Amino acid sequence: MALVAVVAAAALLVFGAGRTTARVARVADYAESRLAVVKHQMAAAGPGHVLLAGDSNIELFGAPREGCGRELVNAGVSGATVKNYDTVARRLVPWARAHATVLTIGTNDLLRKSEPLSAHNIDRFAGAAATIIATLGERSESLIVTAIPPVGNNQLSAVDADAVERYSAILQEACRKPHCVFVDPFKAERAAAFGVAREGATEGLHLVRYQAAYAGLLRDACRRPD
């Protein structure tokens, strides 16, 4: 429950009224505290772990209920945009190399008031996403990039559901190198519209069943050859 409360608070920094400098600074402060935890966990895991990277969709996954034969390190940062996570990814590079990395990012870049489907913001997201993918790819034997999860009906006034699909396509386009694989582990959680969650799949902004959504993907990540 404590993690859920922290994640909800961090999400509100982005989805609340106005993305002020103070809110952005608080997300950066939260990222700094998360990095201290991640560094400790990564040192304990050593090389060959599986890294979970991204925003609150990753952080809320928590720890796996079932092992997959490798240590798992959760480097999710609630409230992170691609700009925030670009900084986090660069900080991760000198630390222990991962066997595989799973990246889920983009939800916090989809605010309607920020006009995510404008040409400027599409280009901005594409550039930052490509940089994150390249950075994480350098420190992993393989990289799995996911589509952006759908959002609940109660979030559609704040979040542009059409941008969920458009930004997912941008992530897929950036994930082109042989070591990078793009997947959509959230198909079962989507309604007819790609960016909208089926009834009962979300608690507000976030999915209810992250463990189930990522289960097959993580088994594949653990088994990928070195």
Automatic annotation (TrEMBL):
<feature type="domain" description="SGNH hydrolase-type esterase">
    <location>
        <begin position="68"/>
        <end position="207"/>
    </location>
</feature>
<dbReference type="Pfam" id="PF13472">
    <property type="entry name" value="Lipase_GDSL_2"/>
</dbReference>
<dbReference type="GO" id="GO:0016788">
    <property type="term" value="F:hydrolase activity, acting on ester bonds"/>
</dbReference>
<keyword id="KW-0732">Signal</keyword>
<dbReference type="InterPro" id="IPR036514">
    <property type="entry name" value="SGNH_hydro_sf"/>
</dbReference>
<protein>
    <recommendedName>
        <fullName>SGNH hydrolase-type esterase domain-containing protein</fullName>
    </recommendedName>
</protein>
<dbReference type="InterPro" id="IPR013830">
    <property type="entry name" value="SGNH_hydro"/>
</dbReference>
<feature type="signal peptide">
    <location>
        <begin position="1"/>
        <end position="22"/>
    </location>
</feature>
